[in-house]
Amino acid sequence: MNEKRGLSSLEPDSVIAERVRQQLSPFPEKFRDLGEPGELRRMLTGTKTLSGPRVRQQPEDFTEQYLIEPVLHGLGYWNPMSKEYESGNPHFVRQPSEYRNVEPKRPDYKLEHVGDSVVCLVEAKAANNEQVDGAKQHATADVKQYLQSDTFCRVLRDQEHEYLVGIGTDGLRWTLWSKHLATGEIIGERPKIDLAAVLKANAQRQGTIEGNPRMSRPEQRRKLSDTLVPAFAARNLEQHVR
């Protein structure tokens, strides 16, 4: 089936989900190129933290480059350095410094043009530093610091924003927290998504790790469309929070 024709028959969230699914491919491919499929397998099937020496790079930088930023792109957030980027489109900004006078801790990303009522920050960690359950929830811990900062939230409220949104991710798990700036109400893990099974099926289909994939491409797309896309996609984020 022609790819464009196939995508045109899908609902908008399913189109985004398919793009995210495709953007997951570079991560396992990089492990294959490095001759480290075992490192990928251990990470996807357990709680092992990504090893910097094995990927020849700082683990967090590797995760951002080959997993987090591709997923953000699939969700509709452009890299502003991309030739295809058009001014005014949703995009990510690395290491934003605009709030440095009121918030000394700089977030890893800010998502721009996601809605006038929302300020959205992203905290990124190396793969497997954010588990669904248990003690390893380092991205979540950083997100909470922003939401609990009275000074930072007061500045955003004075700028007439309604919501502060914090996304925490290690590329495999994605969690979204929000704070209503007027009332101070914080809602956490709305939702928290685990992409490990989709990544594992993707890696098995590529032949990067052994085994038959338990999820077909349409099943991967449906899982992403049902879980990740409704909350995290650029077209949905503001409405999801409201």
From TrEMBL:
Query: Domain of life here?
Result: Archaea
Q: Identify this protein by name.
A: Type I restriction enzyme R protein N terminus (HSDR_N)
Question: Can you name the source organism?
Answer: Halogranum amylolyticum
